[in-house]
Write a structure and sequence with these properties.
The structure is a single chain. By secondary structure, the protein is of the alpha/beta class. It has 2 domains: 209 residues, 3-Layer(aba) Sandwich (Rossmann fold); 168 residues, Rossmann fold (3-Layer(aba) Sandwich). The chain has 17 helices and 16 strands. The strands form 3 sheets. Strands 4-5-2-1-7-8-9-10 form an 8-stranded mixed β-sheet, with helices on both faces. It has a 6-stranded parallel β-sheet with strand order 13-12-11-14-15-16, sandwiched between helices. The longest helix has 19 residues.
């Protein structure tokens, strides 16, 4: 249930330390996603954060003796939850909610966990949300989760998810949506238009860390040293939204290029290709990513034109931009300020043409990209978020 807090928060009060609870963030130690980055941004502004990770299968509780339910690092408290495999066995859903509620209640009782802000990053059952007494409840619609679930698991799971998400959206005080296009879709679904409850909160990035690699003397990673130039690269998850057929076709027609894909290969994805100019590398640590981007001549976003992608604000774009790299994408970017700075090609021929144009582009575009990335630090995104929450 909602707290009955009525004390007004003026702008000068927002800068004071807030207690923020993230509900269902991605695993914190992965380090690169929106939920972890927002958390770090709030910590750098001296707020206290309780970061409740999305539940993992209870089998990890028994398979990993080093796993603990809570880690404390200064003002950061990471809380791990364990659940049942409800997607595989839907009948366990009610028991799973009871199990998770028990774990959260223990955390609330132990830590007097009454947040100023409950930041709901991923959809939870409303009964779990209602365990928290918070001055403000926020839902972070960080991507088009409904479309993603429909694309991956079908209409049945999507309907169940939509019911939960709709209820949370109606219940919270503020909703952040990552792009204008997704905002319009969400408002249409809820039957709302102009409403101060909604605002756009684009992704940010660790600009200083990435940018410092631009002019540094770091050596080219050994895995890329022997490849033919130019190198056309992608860093990120290799899953169903990536158009591998397009990459293979472009690589066959342009054997003088080296195409590099770096990242985790998700279940169900077939081997990349036997094409000699395509190179797959295992995921690299987040801190090493800028070294690989720096070595690329063109960075690519070879996405399928599906709904979840069309509504997204890719974190990779800003990483590419921070190093001033030319970017080639299969789709028009959903963020207006990216227009004119990303080369696009919808099919294999268009994509190849875009790569050639990117290789010949002027240096002025590089500086424009860097400026956009500089203005989108996670710290500035967090400041904007707090202002919007209390203004609404």
């Amino acid at each position: 249930m909602k707290a009955n807090a009525t004390t007004p928060h003026h702008n000068n009060e927002i800068v004071k330390s807030q207690r923020i609870v993230f509900l269902y963030g991605a695993p914190f130690d992965l380090g690169w996603g929106r939920s972890q980055s927002l958390c770090k941004g709030f910590l750098e502004k001296d707020h206290e954060v309780f970061y409740i990770e999305h539940p993992v299968s209870i089998r990890f509780l028994f398979s990993n003796k080093s796993t603990v339910s809570k880690k404390t690092r200064g003002k950061l408290h990471i809380i791990k939850l364990f659940g049942l495999p409800v997607r595989r066995f839907p009948f366990l859903n009610r028991l799973n909610i009871t199990l998770i509620k028990y774990q959260i209640k223990r955390a609330i009782d132990k830590d007097f966990l009454t947040p100023n802000i409950l930041w709901i990053y991923d959809v939870a059952d409303i009964n779990i949300v209602n365990l928290f007494f918070a001055e403000k409840r926020v839902y972070d619609c960080a991507d088009d989760r409904l479309s993603r679930i429909t694309e991956q698991f079908g209409e049945k799971y999507a309907r169940n998810f939509q019911e939960k998400e709709n209820q949370i959206m109606k219940d919270v005080d503020h909703i952040f949506v990552v792009t204008e296009r997704l905002l319009q879709n969400v408002q249409l679904r809820l039957g709302k238009k102009e409403n101060s409850k909604f605002s756009i909160l684009n992704n940010g990035m660790d600009f200083d860390y990435f940018y410092n690699f631009r002019d540094s003397q770091t050596s080219i990673p050994s895995a890329l040293q022997e490849l033919n130039s130019p190198i056309i690269g992608y860093v990120g998850t290799i899953t169903y939204w990536l158009d591998l057929d397009l990459i293979i076709s472009v690589a066959h027609d342009n054997p003088e290029y080296s195409f590099v894909l770096i990242g985790p290969l998700r279940d169900g994805m077939r081997p990349i290709s036997s094409c000699k100019s395509i190179f797959y590398l295992e995921p690299v640590p987040y801190k090493e990513v800028p070294k690989y981007i720096k070595a690329m001549d063109v960075c690519m976003l070879p996405f399928k034109p599906i709904e979840s992608v069309l509504n997204a604000d890719s974190l990779k774009i800003l990483q590419y931009f921070s190093l001033g790299k030319p970017v080639v994408s299969t789709i028009k970017p959903p963020i207006r300020e990216y227009e004119g700075l990303i080369w696009t090609g919808a099919d294999d021929k268009g994509f190849a043409t875009a790569i050639r144009a990117a290789l010949r582009e002027s240096t002025g575009l590089s500086q424009q990209r860097i400026k956009i990335a500089r203005d989108r630090s996670w710290q500035s995104i967090c400041e904007k978020a707090l202002s919007r929450i209390y203004e609404s």
